[in-house]
Amino acid sequence: MQKIGIIVAMEEEEEAIEELMKDISKEEVYNLTFCKGKIQNQKCVLVQSGIGKVNAARTTQIMIDKYKVNTVINVGAAGSINGLLNIGDVLIGKQVVQHDFDITAFGHSKGFITGIGNSIECDPIFIENIQNLLKNNSDSDYKIKLGIVATGDIFCEDASLKDQIRANFDADVVDMECGAIGQVCYLDDVPFSVIRTISDTPNGSNASTFDDNLESASKKCADILNKYLKTLE
Predict the structure, then answer these.
(1) Nearest-angstrom CA–CA distance, 121 and 193
(2) Predicted structure pTM score
(3) Measured between alpha carbons, how far is 190 from 174 in angstroms, rounded to an integer?
(4) Does the annotation mark 200 as catalytic?
(5) Annotated catalytic residue 13
């Protein structure tokens, strides 16, 4: 049986997933609380990394080193920069990029990372399995899309920055962790996947919208994760 690592950034996201877990035990490692247990009879390790790329990267490496997970799934809320994605819709990561990584002074395109490239591919097996699971989604209240996550160390409120990121990377959502988690997993040769629910759209006042929708977005991500893990039995 494989061991699945689940990384979230915020407390609400963690609580929604922990509610699904059985046989729970917890362990403190470098001031992080790792929650071990089972979801749908699958061995899982859940951790709240905190917000931002450094927090996400260090947490991912600790999880891989200590718990020897076979795959990592990043779950949580995200901001939509694709006009076709509304609050409550779901984005399944196809690729992740880092929109704030900039070595264009050396002739590279925006987002290019030495030794990595312009983007990191998410786990194709996960994508295929979850697409098969969700293709008959009967909930007409939300859409599910396969797309690109753009990560940066900024909570994006500026509509012009949103449009710039969309134009540069053809991205669908913005967040503050996925790109860093994906980079560590890529370097460690560990499959990496993303489930993100839209909580807001950068428009100058979306911080309050994010707060209003974080709990519902977290629960929807947890529900999709739960359904996916059930297919692995």
Answers:
(1) 9
(2) 0.93
(3) 23
(4) yes
(5) yes
Domain of 171: which CATH number? 3.40.50.1580
Tokens of 180: 């860093």
Domain that holds residue 49: 3-230
Bin 117: left if φ > 0, else alpha if -120 < ψ < 50, else beta.
Answer: left
Query: Do the beta carbons of residue 169 and residue 111 sit within 8 Å?
Result: yes
Angle between helix axes 11-18 and 206-230 (nearest 10 degrees) is: 20
**Distances, alpha carbon 47 to alpha carbons 10, 75, 115, 171, in Å:** 10, 11, 27, 26
User: What are the per-10-residue average pLDDT scores of the chain (233 residues)?
Assistant: 91 93 95 96 96 97 97 94 90 96 94 94 94 71 90 85 91 96 98 92 67 81 91 80
> Residue 6 contacts by C-beta under 8 Å, 6 or more apart in sequence?
17, 44, 45, 46, 47, 72, 73, 74, 75, 225
Which is catalytic among the residues 14, 18, 123, 200? 200
The secondary structure of 150-186 as a DSSP string is: EE-SS----HHHHHHHHHHH--SEEESSHHHHHHHHH
The three-class DSSP label of residue 17 is helix
Please give the tally of structural domains in the chain.
1
* Contact (CB, 8 A) for 20 and 39: yes
148-158 burial, b if ≥16 CB within 10 A, otherwise e? bbbbbbebbbe
Whole-angstrom Cα distance, residue 10 to residue 150?
Answer: 18
The active-site residue out of 13, 14, 175, 177 is 13
